[in-house]
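Input (structure):
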């Protein structure tokens, strides 16, 4: 590859002859001017030739962040992601990233601008949500570097996002005590969606997993259920799919309390089928509208808000019922590895999210051990000598 330098007014410019366009055979050149001396121009020319030969050069592009992300959604996310994942990705890009960074030329985007964007987001949103936005931007921009050839470096490698959640962030996670969730369930008995809340509290299943649960997935004899599909609503409508990870496809052993609730629910469904007759939409669902149709998540959220007020317990989100189940498992001494399997998580994910609960649990364990040792010591003192 060759280059040359020429003087243009009071400055110098270099010109490099690039390989012809592989599709059209047209001649291509790369030039840059503004150098004060001929020597500076030649130095820059040699550096650029070395960069091109190493495959580190990218052609200049005027494409904006908005244009690139819209292209990314259509050509990569849509054909490769599950509908629910694509819907989430699209929402974050259109509602959060594009309004803030969309007008910037992609090749002018810097780690500093991205960090400033995150700092602004943290004023309004949780750090967990900002972390999700970071994940979307990281996937998209890394592709611009590795496949699209629009970026000469992976700029997201210079934008760190702590993977562990610190003590202050843990305050965002809320859950009920045994007394609180027992009070909530007792107060909610008879509600049309009671079984949804019972399953969430006693199994730790995700909302989509609960709304996709079918009667054929439940084994009453062995006291367990299988999580093998989810029901989620996107902007395009209802989507039935497999859980998001292999760990999420699992068997969950059932407490007697939830078995009782499921058996009662089964009887309700049989009565509804008889009542609706041919008009009943039979999807074999455990949790459904009286006529058998899939429940929209919005109805669960609205119902929970009403029931929380009625029960007089602390207000938490539906997803916090999953955290409630996790804290309950740890409180009764379940091994964290077993708890992780039950929730459809890897042990590493479980420890990252719930490790802040363990110190308290360990304190309680030590107190019980000391009480037992004290009991044994007193027993030995009071034993008659032979």
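Output (sequence):
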């Amino acid at each position: 590859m060759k280059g040359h330098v020429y003087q243009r007014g009071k400055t110098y410019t270099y010109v490099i002859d690039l390989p012809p366009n592989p599709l059209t055979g047209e001649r291509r050149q790369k030039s840059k001017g503004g150098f004060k001396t001929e020597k500076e121009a030649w130095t820059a020319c040699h550096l650029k030739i070395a960069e091109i030969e190493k495959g580190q050069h990218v052609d200049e592009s005027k494409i904006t962040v908005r244009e690139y992300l819209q292209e990314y959604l259509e050509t990569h996310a849509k054909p490769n992601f599950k509908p629910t994942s694509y819907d989430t990705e699209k929402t974050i890009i259109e509602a959060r990233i594009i309004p803030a960074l969309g007008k910037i030329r992609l090749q002018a985007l810097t780690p500093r601008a991205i960090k400033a964007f995150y700092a602004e987001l943290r004023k309004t949103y949780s750090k967990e949500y900002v972390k999700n936005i970071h994940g979307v931007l990281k996937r998209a921009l890394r592709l611009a570097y590795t496949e699209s050839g629009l970026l000469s470096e992976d700029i997201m490698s210079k934008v760190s996002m702590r993977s562990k959640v610190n003590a202050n962030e843990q305050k965002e996670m809320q859950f009920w005590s045994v007394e609180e969730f027992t009070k909530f369930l007792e107060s909610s008995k008879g509600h049309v969606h009671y079984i949804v809340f019972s399953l969430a509290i006693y199994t730790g299943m995700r909302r989509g997993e609960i709304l996709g649960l079918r009667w054929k997935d439940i084994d009453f004899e062995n006291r367990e259920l299988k999580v093998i599909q989810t029901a989620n609503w996107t902007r395009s409508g209802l989507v039935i799919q497999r859980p998001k990870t292999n760990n999420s496809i699992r068997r969950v052993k059932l407490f007697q309390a939830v078995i009782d609730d499921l058996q009662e629910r089964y009887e309700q469904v049989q009565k509804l089928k008889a009542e609706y007759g041919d008009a009943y939409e039979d999807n074999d669902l455990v949790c459904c509208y009286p006529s058998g149709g899939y429940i929209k998540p919005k109805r669960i959220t609205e119902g929970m808000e009403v029931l929380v007020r009625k029960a007089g317990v602390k207000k938490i989100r539906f997803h916090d019922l999953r955290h409630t189940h996790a804290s309950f498992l740890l409180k009764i001494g379940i091994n964290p590895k077993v708890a992780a399997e039950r929730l459809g998580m890897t042990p590493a994910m479980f420890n990252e999210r719930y490790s802040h609960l363990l110190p308290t649990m360990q304190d309680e364990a030590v107190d019980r051990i000391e009480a037992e040792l004290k009991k044994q010591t007193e027993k030995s003192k009071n034993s008659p000598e032979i």
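Notes: The longest strand covers residues 11-18. The beta strands are 3-8, 11-18, 28-35, 218-219, 224-227, 230-234, 237-241, 250-253.
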